[in-house]
Inverse folding.
């Protein structure tokens, strides 16, 4: 049964005839490790080649049809976590078919609000439900202040605080990762993602100390799917950088629901809240009803959004040009993740 692989509603998933349903646990270039289920309901894990050019190209979390050890089809995705590829010329899917995106941000000397907001927008953009996980709560005297800052930054998102060393919050996290739930951990390198996995499962996956600058080297280098004893599925992926943020308008509106609501009263429907006449958002800042920093964050993210629109236009254009050729959005896994400084 594909339910054991994290299918929320197996009846809704489509698989090719005369093929076994499976789920991608790791992608290695042009092969993928797949956990598949045969007609007798037995699970097998194996490395599969692609029978043909697959569109979309498989990523971790994809549902696939396996025939004679080859992937013959990829099931249409319900949700997808996306970012621009390293060359900025296309959109790359990092993980597919997620129910929850855990936005993992460490409790440092202070909250990295910009990071939290941008990751949350990216999480909303995936179509899955974001949940903020504030890690490393042990030994910090500023937990309450950081939680308050996080609530102010992403007011409509559930927040969990955890410590992988003391175990605080791990049970709460586990209760979110029940059968039928697939979650991915999204956060900077060194945020403590793999440590959460280890704490949840008493595993011993590689973690690494963070440098003084906070820009830790990647400890995790591959996107990988884990099945949890709580019944859920958890995807651990390498840390992403602020630079990688990409968003869609719906994601912004969800993360900035306060600004979206105020914008209904702007004189112009396409108001940029930046010197346009009759702007209700700027008025709210003047009146002290909206923190100025909120509007500044929104503007910063709009800048990224414009960039994203250019990307999509370029992607569409290049797709038209290469109708005959394959699209390879998911197969540059490692190089792309490890282009860190
Ligand atoms: N004190 C404390 N340290 C933690 C906690 N969680 C993680 N760390 C430390 O933070 C560092 C980074 O942790 P990782 O789990 O490797 O971080 P990551 O997000 O998986 O990093 P990448 O794989 O590079 O993306 C390690 O030195 C961990 O020991 C925690 O709850 N408390
Ligand atoms: Mg890691
Ligand atoms: Zn406005």
């Amino acid at each position: 049964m594909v339910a054991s692989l994290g299918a929320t509603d197996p009846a809704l998933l489509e698989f090719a005839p005369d093929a076994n349903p499976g789920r991608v646990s790791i992608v290695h270039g042009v092969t993928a490790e797949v956990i598949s289920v045969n007609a007798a309901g037995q699970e097998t894990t194996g490395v599969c080649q692609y029978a043909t050019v697959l569109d979309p190209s498989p990523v971790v979390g994809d549902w696939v049809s396996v025939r004679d050890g080859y992937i013959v089809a990829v099931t249409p995705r319900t949700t997808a976590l996306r970012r621009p590829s390293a060359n900025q010329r296309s959109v790359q899917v990092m993980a597919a078919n997620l129910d929850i995106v855990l936005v993992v941000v460490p409790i440092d000397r202070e909250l990295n609000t910009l990071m939290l907001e941008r990751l949350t927008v990216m999480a909303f953009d995936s179509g899955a439900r974001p949940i903020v996980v504030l890690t490393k709560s042990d030994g910090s005297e500023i937990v309450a202040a950081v939680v308050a800052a996080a609530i102010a930054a992403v007011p409509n998102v559930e927040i969990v605080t955890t410590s992988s060393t003391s175990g605080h919050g791990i049970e709460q996290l586990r209760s979110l990762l029940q059968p039928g739930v697939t979650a991915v951990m999204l956060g900077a390198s060194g945020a403590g993602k793999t440590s959460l996995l280890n704490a949840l499962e008493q595993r011993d996956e590689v973690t690494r100390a963070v440098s003084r600058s906070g820009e830790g080297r990647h400890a995790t280098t591959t996107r990988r799917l884990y099945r949890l004893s709580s019944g859920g599925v958890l995807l651990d992926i390498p840390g992403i950088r602020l630079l990688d943020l990409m968003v869609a308008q719906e994601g912004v509106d969800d993360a900035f629901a306060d600004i979206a609501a105020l914008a209904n009263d702007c004189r112009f429907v396409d108001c940029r809240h930046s010197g346009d006449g009759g702007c209700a958002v700027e008025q709210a800042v003047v009146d002290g009803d909206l923190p100025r920093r909120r509007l500044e964050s929104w503007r910063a993210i709009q800048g990224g959004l414009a960039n994203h629109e250019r990307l999509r236009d370029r992607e569409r254009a290049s797709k038209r040009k290469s109708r005959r050729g394959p699209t390879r959005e998911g197969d540059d896994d490692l190089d792309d993740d490890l282009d860190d400084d």
Observations:
- The first strand starts at residue 20 and ends at 28.
- Residues 323-341 have pLDDT under 50 and may be disordered.
